[in-house]
Specification:
The structure holds two protein chains of two kinds. By secondary structure, chain A is an alpha/beta fold. Chain A has a single domain (5-200), classed as Rossmann fold, CATH 3.40.50. Helices cover 38% and strands 11% of the residues of chain A. Chain A has eight helices and four strands; from the N terminus they run βααβαβααβααα. Chain A has helices at 36-45, 74-79, 97-100, 117-128, 135-155, 166-171, 173-184, 191-197; strands at 25-30, 92-94, 108-114, 159-165. A four-stranded parallel sheet of chain A has the order 2-1-3-4, with helices on both faces. In chain A, helix 1 packs antiparallel against helix 8 (191-197). By secondary structure, chain B is an all-alpha fold. The termini of chain B are far apart. Classes of the chains: A alpha/beta, B mainly alpha. The A-B interface holds A 32-33, 56, 71-73, 75-76, 96, 98, 124, 127-128, 130, 132, 134, 137-138, 140-142, 144-145, 147-148 and B 56-59, 61-63, 65-67, 69-70, 72-77.
Amino acid sequence: MPPTPEEMPTKAKDSGLKTLDPGINYVVSGLERSGTSLMMQMLSAGGLPLAFDDLRRPDEHNPRGYFELEGGKIITRLMHKTFPMETYRGRFLKITAFGLLYLPPGKYKIIYMQRDLDEILDSMEKMAKTTDPQREETKRSFHRLNAKVLQDLHARTDVDLLLINFNEILRNPSAQLQEICQFLQPYPCDYDNMLLVIDQRLYRQRR
Amino acid sequence: MQGRTEDEPSTPVSIPTALARKIEQRIKGTPFPSVSAYVTYVLTEVLSGTEEDSEGTFSKEDEERVKARLRALGYLD
């Protein structure tokens, strides 16, 4: 019998690992509502060190929490070049896609989440409690943002990038988890505990 | 090189004679067999670039639309 949500691991597995490579900034990214919180939760369950605070509390949209710093508003600080990226080396930090346009030079390992864009927009509308009257235009804009961010990341020599598909991770978690654990080598990740995090019942915007 | 093939239907387009003379000079020693082939190639490239821009470039308008959504979601002040 699969575990209930209450039985699922919601806290970091204490692997004793306090930091990954202290010379590298580790980032989980993707468009908002693309599964970045799920990825942070999986990494936490896998025993990987994360950097986040509890400014934005769990809610019905993210029952297990957002795993964000400063309520997710570090984008503004990145835009103004006031975010102390060096403080967070060696730990995974969540920076959503738009913020990556302002990522300062450094050394990065980035896990970038991709998800069906209509599902993302459905989830955004639900979260904002509104219906977007310009949905098609919004979709095109987010599509172009996603394309630009990925183009920029591919062009950078200071970024090691792993693309993970949210829809695929729910369909075929084993293959995706193997890729993630391989990406994190030489650091160990608790594959089985990460697998437990993937709860089909949280996949509410399926198309 | 992309140009017009013999069996493709074509439409005459007028360009200034001086421009045609410049093109004639430019295509000497190149694979372009005629002014028409060169003009077809250049226009195809220009149009292809324009279509790519409208499909793929993240514009200022896109940025404002994205920012508005991010503000609604609480990700931007």
